[in-house]
Amino acid sequence: MSRKPSGKGVGHGTVAQRAGLGDSIAIMIQELRSRGRIDDSQPLLRIDYRKEAATAPFQFDMANARLHRTSCCAIPRGSKSALYAVWTPAPEDMELACKRCRPVMPVEGEEDEMANGKDGGREREFATDIIFGFLSIIDQFGSVLTERGREYRSSERGKEVVKAFETLYSELTRKQKEALDITVSSLDVLVGAVRRYNEGFGTNGTNGRSAGKGTGAHKKNGNGRPRG
Amino acid sequence: MAGVSHLWEPDSGLLRDIESMARDYRRRAEEHLKPIVSSYYPALLDGGGEYRKMIELSTKMTMVGHACTEIGGYRFDERRRRMSALFGACCFIGDSFIDDFGDDAAREYIERYELLLTRGWFDIRNDRERLFFVILTRLFGERDVLDPMLRQAIFSLFLAQKRDVDLRLDPGWLKVLRRRSRLDQLRVCARDRSGHAITVLSLFLVPGFPLRYHHLLYTAGALIMYIDDHGDCYSDLYHNRVTYMNQVKNPSVTLLRAFARGTERLRKGLPEGRGREILLAFLYRYFITRIEKHRLERDRGRYSWTVYE
Hints:
Number of helices of chain B: 12
Oligomer: heterodimer
Order of helices and strands of chain B: HHHHHHHHHHHH
CATH architecture of chain B: Orthogonal Bundle
CATH topology of chain B: Farnesyl Diphosphate Synthase
Helix content of chain B: over 70%
Radius of gyration of chain B: 19 Å
Helix content of chain A: 40-55%
Shape of chain B: globular
CATH superfamily of chain B: Farnesyl Diphosphate Synthase
Number of strands of chain B: 0
Strand content of chain A: 5-15%
Structural class of chain A: mainly alpha
Distance between the termini of chain A: 16 Å
Number of helices of chain A: 7
Strand order of the largest sheet of chain A: 2-1-3
Largest sheet of chain B: none
Distance between the termini of chain B: 20 Å
Number of strands of chain A: 3
CATH class of chain B: Mainly Alpha
């Protein structure tokens, strides 16, 4: 990091300290990307919702206070930039329904389907999304995580944490230990799978990604140099 | 200004409340923002009136945020005050990249901000950018920014900003339009910039803000933009910034009509209560002070850099 917070003001109190720590992490992630240490071919965070919005059943015109079906031809041209996709309107919102396309409240059951996409799968996919989110972080930040993990394991703080974990583990009941073991081994399998996947792709060179993530080599533009 | 005497106006008690609220929120905005500025971009504190202008915008956002929160049925607590101040600072610094460093910087900001919103990446090259990024990160950290409405509001605000910059930097296509179409484009652009901004603010403060009140806040946002542009009329003309308010034939009358129509809509549509009163009183105060600013700036000349409350 080129510049850390001086701590003046920010360092006082728990909320401020947490915020200061959050700032440092956020800045560090961006700096690691600038130095070519993070795979920026994948997005870190996508706010842009246009793709999803286009598939919503309703659109709300903020400028004229009208709720339309997405396909309604009565949406004024001047309102295109003021439309918000709506998945499940509230019953009170129907007062603002367009008289031309007459959007109707989804009936029970259909409501979930609309909120969750055509196959009603969004809710069911929630857990899967979490796992994929976790995997994507390992994938994207793999080299940084490995390096930090190695450093942390051999640091005094890391050793203290290991001791604390050992004490905590010894105090668990048999059932709790079994549950924890299953969780840890599942994570192990997932991490292993991500690594094998990356190595496989790296050797084939199909997407230009290096097998040597652990070395910190950057793949995006092939030279590992920071951008911009 | 002709016609002002016939407008609805808040009673003197409410106006006094608004004044004292503004003083309180100015102090609080500074309490939230000064430590961040000191840590990441201390030069801003010595940069003439710029820091004060940022505090003023944050104060206004806090006032509007208070109104939105109460309209949404919640208490305007410390956390919400902090979020409002952060949002004001974020808008101020974001706008500075567009307004204060030339055309290339404005174009570049739009490209880089688009990358931030579409992929999450942002190259931090100097202290101003670091401050902007930290403030944005803190604001985004306050809520689930992947909530569909909030995401749409944030991205729509960006698209409105982009269109505004396009209009400013490439006014050629605007000139070939008929006068009425040209004014329509400018009016919609102003409406969307502030309309989406107030939507972002309200969704940060009240996730799940009722859809049936959103369009009224959008109206309030558009009104704020017209009032603001009228106040900045001479400065905008000096910098060759074309706005709806500096292109209409009779801006005072246009603004007066928009104000009367907009506040009437808000009075009828918003739920009765403190939130509605604060919003209306704030709009009235802003309207009166910006008409005065317009008059003063005409007399002061083009180089004025006065900080207005």
